[in-house]
Amino acid sequence: MKHFLSSCVLLGVLFFSCQKENSTPDNTAPVLSPDEESATFQLVPGLEIRLVASEPLVEEPVFITFDEDGRMWVAEMRGFMPDIDGTGETDPIGRISIYTDEDGDGQMDTRTVFLDSLVLPRSIAVVKGGALIAENIPLWYAEDTDGDLIADRKTLIDSTYGGKGLPEHSPNGLWRGMDNWYYNAKSKYRYRLVEGKWIKEETEFRGQWGISHDDAGRLYYNYNWSQLHADIAPPNYLSRNAHHTSGTGIDVGVSTNRAVFPIRPNPAVNRGYVPGSLDENGRLLEFTSASAPLVYRGATFTEEYRGNVFVCEPAGNLIKRNIIDEGELTLHSHFAYPDKEFLAATDERFRPVFLATGPDGALYVADMYHGIIQHGAYITPYLREQYIQRGLDKGIHYGRIWQIKPKNANLPETEKLSQKSSVELVALLSHPNGWYRDVAQRLLVERRDLSIVPEIQKLVAGKSNFPGKLHALWTLEGIGYTETDIYEQGANDPHPKVRAAAIRLLEIISQKNPAAENVFKKVLVNGKDDPSPEVQLQVCLSLGVLTPQESLPILSEILSQYADSALFRDAVMSSLENREQMMLRQLSGEWKEASSGKSIFLEMLTTAILRKGDKREIAELEKIARTPGRWEEWQSEAIARVLALQIKNETTKADSLSANEVIPVERMVAGRQLFLNTCSGCHGSNGEGMKNFAPPLAGSEWVTGDKKRLILLVLHGLEGPLTVNGHLYDKPEILPVMPSFTILDDKDLAEILTYIRNAWGNTSESVSPGDVGHTRHTSQGRVIPWTEKELLNIQPTPEPNE
After folding, report:
1. Fewest Cβ atoms nearer than 10 Å: which of 123, 216, 266, 553?
2. CA distance linking residue 596 with residue 671, whole number of Å
3. pLDDT band with cut points at 50, 70 and 90 for residue 739
4. Burial status of residue 706 (CB atoms within 10 A of its CB: 0-12, 13-18, 19 or more)
5. Burial of 153 from C-beta contacts in 10 A (0-12 / 13-18 / 19+)
6. Banded pLDDT at 275 (limits 50, 70, 90)
7. What's the mean pLDDT when you consider all of the chain?
8. E strands, 438-592, where?
9. Which residues lie below 8 Å from residue 72, measured CB to CB, with a gap of 6+?
């Protein structure tokens, strides 16, 4: 390990020396005035960017939001890395400020400090009476009780919100979802005000820095190395079955393309010395600090921008624009521009770290304008030298907020929603600008004014857009309306997203109003025949609350139609906790014809039964595997495959494994499920390979050999021919390119690779999440697939005693 680190530092010094020799005499990054900085911007045609606020009015802005009257709230992280050693970083000098444009010229004139003396504040959610504020570790509810925009009372909501308090790896976001919960990035918790008390509830873990949602309410987030992820399924459904771990639906990679196109050299990035991180001109090749994904839901830009997702890359001094391609229960994206960015700068201190849509529909950019963008805990010796040599460690307490809008556009005047009646707010639920819809819903929920129900009913029954109807229905839920009439109306709406949401809502209110249960059951039964897969998916997710007699026939019927869909398989499993054996028996009589999807689902059921641990149920599985009886041969074989994994891992492994490693059955089972969902479409469910797709994995030296090469191959993909067991595989026998899987996290990749290295007769040591994470970091910058020759030239993983 010491030898490896020394080599990295040496590479860094050599790279740095080379850069220094080729650089201009002045290799520093000077502080520019806002006018000078704006002259360095390269913005796509048709738009213009202008300054909204700058130092000393605002310093180190990291978060922007707008209150109901259009005032801009900003978290100022003034303590972040004051110098290269982070001296005084925990001093309470951060603040939450409110900015007002008094004369309507588009620039902020006044600042009111809502709350100061904070340590590294990073997120704000404006709520009734004040705001939720994420500080270094605690989450606060700060109240303004006298209306002067200055907090005069602070209540602790969660003393552990921020975890360890490292800025780039601490929970953040406080994003108000359409379902009235506040969601966070880098966190597995959500928050909600219930009967005057803030509650905390576990949810799926999401992202790293920044979170937003689209018109359908789906959450978007990202990780520093992977720019765009999203939820296909609604929160907290796919984790309902304690005996099953879902691999789909949540944290879905929307973009596999990580390339970026800076317009200046970016030597001051971690691992800039690693070949492939920077191009021949020293420019960053791929995301290294992706953050703050924002779905544009405004109405000021042209229609082609609606639903686009913008992502910040502060280390590359740019903002990317992604266009979303939506299919049936799928989300993908492509770059709006094939070889340039939405906004890029030649000023190395341009640090876009957060984005927001304003009440005027413009795009707002928080430019931290801070030389050091990497937190001290993660600064390598190479990066430290870069910061110091380029002067980026000097010059603090700057910051700019920029506004981007169509060129020469007259922005609409912001309406003061606090002065609107509840009826007027209902009308704004279908406003073309998503900001108005979000804030109107929040205000209505906070008012809990049940007199608006007739107006909501008119909106749901009318011809308004589907986002307006979604907001209207969730507003009803938020104010505590539990009668079924309007929700049932939504369940018959022409738009599938409205019908699916209505099912969710009927499930919620049926738990509060027993009289709603019959309506809920009727909607589920009707939903199984809905022409939309989105509605049928929600039916599967919600059926778990009914009895087995009611739910299993419907689940079976839908699954027979969608057995080849990994998402539907997970959705059905989520509704089968403690009912897996009953479902197994039911399917044995119904499923006669084999298919890959059906076999996979039977394996999933078997795995869940093993995890449950009921001895009688396990004994039944073993009997089926030995003597199928009424079971089809392919059914008993699917069950036997999972049992074989368990048996294999309950015994000591072959001497060929280092230290006679025993791999827990849970890891093997999890790896198999992920493999079946992710890889079997090309490699076959038993690793046998598939003609015209991919070579075999069973017995492959690439699988059982050096794990570093295997990790690299899976992370970045492979192009061209490949020799496996002496046979040269090339197109058309296999596909010309194997795609990269950088969007999978370290744990999932480790489980897949551990499984394939120990399945079908393969016997090799396991792969840990640390192995994947280390290899991912050291290969960061790779944006093209490997070739066989390149992989063979990579030095193998050193033995532990080397």
Report:
1. 553
2. 17
3. confident
4. middle
5. exposed
6. confident
7. 90
8. none
9. 52, 53, 64, 65, 66, 98, 99, 100, 108, 358, 364, 401
